[in-house]
Amino acid sequence: MVNIWAFEEFVQSENTRTLSIFVQSPSIIGSAISLENLLWTEFSNTDSPVFSPRVPKHLDATLEGLGASRNTMPEAVICAYARTPFGKFRGALSDYSATDLGTKSVSELLSRAGVDPSSGAIDQVYMGQVLQAGAGQAPARQVALGAGLPFDTPCTTINKVCGSSLKAVMIAATEIRAGVANLVVAGGMESMSNAPSFVRSANRGEDVPYAELISVLANDGLKDSWSGEMMGNSGESVAKKFSIQRSASDAYAVRSHLLAKTAWDRGWLSKEVFTVNGLERDEGIRLDCSPETLAKLSPVFEEGGQVTAGNASQVSDGASAVLVASIDAAEAHGLPVLARIVDYTTSGLEPGRVMSAPIPAIEGLLERSGLSMGDIDVLEHNEAFASASCAIQSYFDAPDERFNVHGGAIALGHPLGATGTRCLMTLVNALDRIGGRRGIVAICLGGGNAVAMLVERP
């Protein structure tokens, strides 16, 4: 007998939602079936499956006939979001640990949603964090308990580099669709200011020279472990691949700061953020940014290159979280449906081409949903480097009014573990503001992967 477990990826079309899983046993190898609301079942070593009583009775007893009503799989929706302002490196939030910031974001999230943390309504907590060295055991667990959730709340910390918190949302949506959860907190956190240093080998009783210390921030967060190159080198590579000029990258960076300032001045981003330690806005927005000032900065990663401190995302501190629910749970708790999660995916390229990895992810979402880029009202990109965002925007021919419309990580900041859900809530926020229907958020991440999600306003 073998257990059957649902894979994460969902295959969707306009009228059908199915959960694809694979069976593996001596007589049933790699057979694909589609089930909805499947919790678990068992197969014997014969060709006839043996169903547990928990499987819907209308399922056939043959592999070819396995299927369920396409309207029974729970739909995952976003009901609330909250984030700290993003602080500059060693800035206003540097006295807080990542878990401190995560606890604050989850507490604020539940307060906004009107969910009592102690009620036991939250089925799971998933929190992304990349720089976990020195954070203590089970960072997500620290956040949940700090926010007042019961001791029996399951908690998991996710490290998928810059995609960590969006991956947390993907897992939350998967559990809701599989029927094993109703309300899930998904988010991420990072204190890049407090990332420690370590030494690989040291003799007991001997001093460790400062030069032998290795920065966790650089080693675990900013360097490709496959090639040994810094992520900034991939910003140079994508510029060459797509013929992005230094002047275009600098102009894009100026745009990011201007859009972020405008979004704050007009109160658009205040829907996302709550005040922490007197900081009311994202700390890294530069009011004096101009093409002339950026042109004076020297490239960091390649001689004669174009990636500078001015057209790259900022090293930051912060946390963000969203509440993901089933439709039934949203109705039961009186929660608003801000957006429905339509589809999500993970793509991969060679590590050195990581900045291009969002392209196949976005293309996959569009193809599976039968959409074109013209059907997407807002495309939100994590904006690791201006050259990367210029490349993605150019590849999909996305107009300025539909691309990172509230600014991005160059201006707002990029606390690695928190960026995914920050981008997601900014996307939902922007769709609501402009009255748009569909949006895609896409995040490149170290190692050559990218994660992307398609959402739709009700």
Structural key phrases:
28% helix; disordered N terminus; single chain; 458 residues; 10-stranded mixed beta sheet; alpha+beta; 3-stranded antiparallel beta sheet; globular; 18 strands
Fraction of residues in β-strands: 15-25%
Number of strands: 18
The helix/strand order is EEEEEEEEHEHEHEEEHHHHEHEHEHHHEE
Report the end-to-end length measured between terminal Cα atoms.
Answer: 43 Å
Major sheet size, sense and barrel closure: 10 strands, mixed
User: How many separate helices?
Assistant: 12
Overall pLDDT confidence: 88
Helix content: 25-40%
Instruction: Return Rg in Å.
Output: 22 Å
Class derived from helix and strand content: alpha+beta
Instruction: Indicate the overall shape.
Output: globular
Low-confidence stretches: 1-70
